[in-house]
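Standup notes
- HV: blocked on the assembly model, inputs below
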Amino acid sequence: MTDRYLMCAPDHFEVAYVINPWMEGNVARGDNQAATRQWNALTRLIGKVAQVERVMAAPSVPDMVFTANAGLVLDSKFVLSRFRHPERQAEEPHFAAWFATQGFEVFTLPPGMPFEGAGDALLDRQAPLLWLGYGHRSDQACAPLIAGWLDIDIQPLKLVNERFYHLDTCFCPLEGGYLMYYPAAFDAASQARIAARVPAEYRIPVVDADAFDFACNAVNCGRHVFLNRASAALTHELQSRGFAVRQTPLTEFMKAGGSAKCLTLKLTEARLPVVQAAA
Ligand code: ARG
């Protein structure tokens, strides 16, 4: 099956406000033409291995380009995001309408319960498990509701570094059950929970330089990994696990605190079977 990803062209993209530390000092400092070139290059790369669907960019919501934050997809269900910051809340009706038109069953969280979709909720690639980042944007209180709607086990993880304010900035489950992540972005208890669920030989911790280059914010489609930048050591590490790594500069989007993965939302997320432990 060909995977499908939802993207939104940067027609109205700019850094117009500050809601994360990456945006500080970058208001009105972006270059929309450069952003468009970078976005087109990423779209072309993904388009070679998957199908890219588009949601129309709306004016006055410059961060709508970060479709990972539209909500969370599993099979034909979609949990709509409830943005923490008023600056992004006007994106919600646009995403709700797109998913309803596409035939998804749309679930809506109660008011006052922030949840930022696949920015903070990432499906494990080995087990039917949802990792949920909280501490900056999403509220841990949404876990029981989402677990019930999607019938999935949820493992909350506490994010403690404000530069890594969404789970997908520091945590990337990869095909085959691997996990690329930045341990320092999590509190000690969450690091222990990760270690308890993912065997050491499947964990790929990244160093500060790679984390700050948004290496964990990677799009993984099958054996392909698309990201802004990765060191030679990390590239080698990923290659040795069978991944083909492709770097594509996304510096314009980093001014807003996002990179490759934030610019996409995987639409073909299927429930994984429960793997029986070997006897
Ligand atoms: N400026 C956006 C925000 O702060 C960036 C979102 C990046 N998206 C992501 N999935 N990490 O909300």
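- HV (later): unblocked. The chain has one domain: 4-266. The radius of gyration is 17 Å.
- Next: hand off to the docking folks.
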